[in-house]
Structure formats: C-alpha cells, structure tokens
Amino acid sequence: MTQVFVAQHPTEAHLVQGLLEANGIAAEVHGESLFGARGEAPVTPDTLPSVWVLDDDQASSARAVLAAYESREDTSHGVAWVCPACGEQIESQFTECWKCGADRPSGKAGE
Ligand SMILES: [Zn+2]
C-alpha cells in the first residue's frame, strides 16, 4: 500500500478516495479515527486522514489523477469564457452573458 494524499479533514480524504475509485484505483482512507483526537495531538501528517492506494503499481497513476485534481482547483478561477450565442468574451465570475443573457456553457455535466 502506498500513501498518495494527506487530507486536511475526513471529508476531503473521502472526496479523494472517491476520485481515485472513479478512475479505477482502489483506495482507502486511514487515520480518520485520530482526527477526533486532534485537540490533544499536534497536527502532523500522522493525525490527519490520509488516502492510501491498495495496489502499489497504481500509485503513480493515482498521483497523476490527484495532480490533475489539484491543478483544476487552482485554475477554476480566472478563466474567461466565450458566449456561444453572441461570441462575446465574458469574465470568469459571470455565469451568464452580460450582453445577450445566454447561460454559460457547462464544461462539467451534472454540476
Ligand atoms: Zn452572449
């Protein structure tokens, strides 16, 4: 087993686990039980929930998935988009075209 991610809280750990499993990589969350004890324990990687890949051979692909996940987080702000209806370029913070009112095209289905 290989540790591929240290989360700040159990929710993030499970999000990452789900992301890996969606990519066909079996993963486990460890250290959740220690999370409740953080009031007494110092915050170190040992007391934070971590995500482990069961198959060591999949650790590198898991890291690639996580790198894509983290870079998407970083770039989700500040990317302008082009209105499909009128061709106007729209700032990233707007969800519809200020010129013609068309909705921002969704690159992520289901969200
Ligand atoms: Zn428009």
Bound molecules: zinc ion
Radius of gyration: 19 Å
**Biggest pleated sheet:** 3 strands, antiparallel
For the termini, the CA-CA separation is 33 Å
Strand content is 15-25%
Q: What is the 3D shape?
A: elongated
Strand segment tally: 5
Estimated helix fraction: 25-40%
Short description:
The chain is built from 3 helices and 5 strands; from the N terminus they run βαβαβαββ.
Keywords:
111 residues; alpha+beta; Alpha-Beta Plaits; two-stranded antiparallel ribbon; 3 helices; binds zinc ion
What does this structure look like?
The chain has 111 residues and is of the alpha+beta class. It has a domain at 2-75: Alpha-Beta Plaits (2-Layer Sandwich). The chain is 31% helix and 15% strand. The chain has helices at residues 10-22, 32-35, 59-75; strands spanning 2-6, 27-30, 50-53, 81-82, 89-90. The longest helix is centred in the middle third of the chain and has 17 residues, at 59-75. It is elongated, with a radius of gyration of 19 Å. The model has no long low-confidence stretch (mean pLDDT 82). It binds zinc ion. Residues 83, 85-86, 88, 97, 99-100, 102 line the site of zinc ion.
